[in-house]
Amino acid sequence: MNKFILLIFFIAATAYAQIVTVKDETTKKPLELVSVYNLELNRALTTDSKGRVDIKMLKESESISFRLMGYETKTVSLDEITSGDNTVYLKEQPISISNVIVSARRWEEDRGELPQTIEYISSQEIELQNPQTTADMLSQSGNVYVQKSQLGGGSPMIRGFATNRVLIVVDNVRMNTAIFRSGNLQNVISLDANSLANAQVIFGPGSVMYGSDAIGGIMDFNTLSPRFSYGNETLINGSAMTRYSSANNEKTGHANVSFGFEKWGLLTSVTYSSFDDLRMGADGPDDYLRPFYQDRINGEDVSITNDDPEVQKGSGYDQTNVMQKIRFKPNNDWEFNYGFHYSTTSDVPRYDRLIETKGDDPKSAEWYYGPQKWIMNNLAITNFSANSFYDLSKVIIAYQNFEESRNDRKFGKSSLRSRTEKVDAFSVNLDLVKNLNESSQLYYGAEAVLNNIESTGITKDIVTGEKEPTSSRYPDGSTWNSYGLYLTYKNKLSEKYIFQAGLRYSLVNINADFDTTFYPFPFTTAGLNTGAVTGSAGLVWHPRNDWQINLNLSTGFRAPNIDDMGKIFDSEPGSVIIPNPDLESEYVYSAEIGITKVFANEVKLDIAGFYSYLDNALVRRDFTLNGQDSIYYDGTLSQVGAIQNAASANVWGVQAGIDFKFMHDFEFISRFNYQTGEEEDDAGDTVPLRHSAPWYGTTRLIFERDLYTAVLYADYNGEISYEDLAPSERDKVTYALDDNGNPYSPSWYTINFKLVLHVIDDLLINLSVENILDKRYRTYSSGISAPGRNFITSLRYDI
Q: Which of 125, 293, 498, 662 is the most exposed place for a label (fewest CB within 10 A)?
């Protein structure tokens, strides 16, 4: 009797835990990070380090697909899996149209079924590129342009748009807040590249899914997640990494560890980086050299001759990142995921302000951002049980806290001005999926975002220690709230055609009270209630398995935020921006067509052309305050300006790429981007668009064997002449000078080499030489020069 009971228990346990192992068909080695999914159920799993996955969550599926980059996708029935030895073998496939699962609509989907251009950056690519920051990681993709005003920065540009016109999303939570500005933003570096499972850049408007700000594109970051174990086994994995870079004496240490149990998973990740002053290259414009630096000696500001002008004095900083994940699965129908993120920097010197001069002296004795802090707590609750309203649902509740400050003191003066901003951001998202039939699905949901802003200003005499209040950057206590409802319909019309269309209604509310103590504004309050309707429609056509043609039409919007409506600051010497409560939303109308062709599973060519029209654009224009076009701001007579709905803009361009696998061990990859943009100026004439980057790209030759990978690659960038510079860029001191003494952005290129060695199974050594020719250059619009010849060494040990 007891044996019979044990037998029944064993059979039940075996049926409950359906463990499948995925292996390479040739080597028979287990494959990690294989996507195991059924798109009709919208459930996607991944294999562990031993190639295992528990498919009991997919037990209702008629078929299950197994997908890994570099391998043929395999779709088999559940019966086929369980009738064998529960092993699935994947065959290598060098190049394919689609072998990646992405989350462009907040749920896992086949990239080959989406009409937008999407750049997918895998964890393996991040490991190979070994970037210092997440901004560097985006730049190394070859499809995102990154501007830097200082070493501790990185402001992505996507299809002619940047800053608060592109959206940052972390684990399905929007990072953009009410004080994201039109000037260059550095928030993307708050994310730790070492804690990412993958990153996706979704090009073009994304307002249907994400609301305001998703005009140029979306940067969607997915961080590492703990895994569950099987049965009574405890799954332990993780890694430790250390890296050194010679150009800025970088010293980075990172560790993550994950514990997996049958129903619980825990993961901890910690990274610390220290960066010294950055050395630029030796071959390039002398305009970029750092001939002096400022210091305070014996209570006096002094300008000191820089013995080595290639060292960019006053650019170093430190950064710390901590992440904690907790995952709980009480049964097959529910899953809870909690994430805690913490990031902080030291003071970050703003290099482009430190190199400005006034006469023979530096303009500023000090100019630095205070610690850039970011905290996020988010809880995602997923329900897999189907009913009449949905087949899959997810609720995400998040709280974020942001803190940043600007601190500056003029050369020879003792008054240090500090302006500090804090934002509490609350958000709730409800996302649902309903299968209407075998070929069509409905994605719908709701969102609420609440921002509270605290903004203060203090002036401190560094000699006497006396403090007194000064004007804040934003109206203290102001709020920015957004609410939205969305609906997207997807239909597989046939094996060749996939159609999707979406619609969203958004409501944005702003309330602000202005302090007239320091400036006599003709208003004391400002409010805004505005709605926006956005939509999209796209078609994917697969004439054959090796062809894909996309067509996508979409609209997007950006509602005014507190930075647009309520800030007061000096944008450049002699110019001050003041609040303007009379603003409306700006809208973008975009079209894109893309073509991808694969030849003999060895060569993939892709090209996408796009056009965007920005209407009612929020731009900086001359303004008046109480009839005056100039006011004294911090002791300087300054031209008054304000953000206004005063322009339209056009952006168009192409993205192209080639992937070529040959001789089994070699791969050739190249990416090229060209874009150009125009906007209206004060007189209604057409001028170059500020955030339209020059043409740029990357080309790589990769040789890969079992124990090592070698990459020889070039990055390159076109010139922007003085005539093609946006008017707002021409007054900056950060550009080189042409033969006529006018500022311009020279073209540049770098030659680079990486070697990755697998000394033993779990130890990886990454040796790199970047900018081998020691070129001296600055990326367009940047205030700091890029690294010169840079030797990078890192060691990584995987548990």
A: 662
Side chain identity, residue 440: S
CA separation, residue 586 to residues 213, 476, 618, 669 (Å): 10, 25, 6, 37
CB-based contact 63:76 (threshold 8 Å): yes
Degrees (nearest 5) of the Cα angle 381, 382, 384?
155
Kindly report the number of other CB atoms within 10 A of residue 389's CB atom. 9
Strand intervals (E) in 462-600: 467-469, 479-492, 497-513, 525-541, 547-558, 569-572, 575-577, 586-599
Q: How far apart are CA 189 and CA 792, in angstroms?
A: 20
**Cα→Cα distances 172→169, 227, 676, Å:** 6, 19, 31
User: At 187, phi and psi to the nearest 5?
Assistant: -65, -25
Question: Residue 213: left if φ>0, alpha if ψ -120 to 50, beta else—which one?
Answer: left
CB atoms within 10 A of CB 723: 9
Of 608, 610, 604, which is closest to residue 547 (Cα–Cα)?
A: 604
Give the C-alpha separation, 695 to 675, whole Å: 7
Quote the pLDDT of residue 571.
Answer: 60
CA distance 593 to 610: 7
Mean pLDDT of 689-710: 95
224-233, 411-420, 632-641, 691-700: least confident range: 632-641
pTM: 0.92
Helix (H, G, I), strand (E, B) or coil at 550: strand
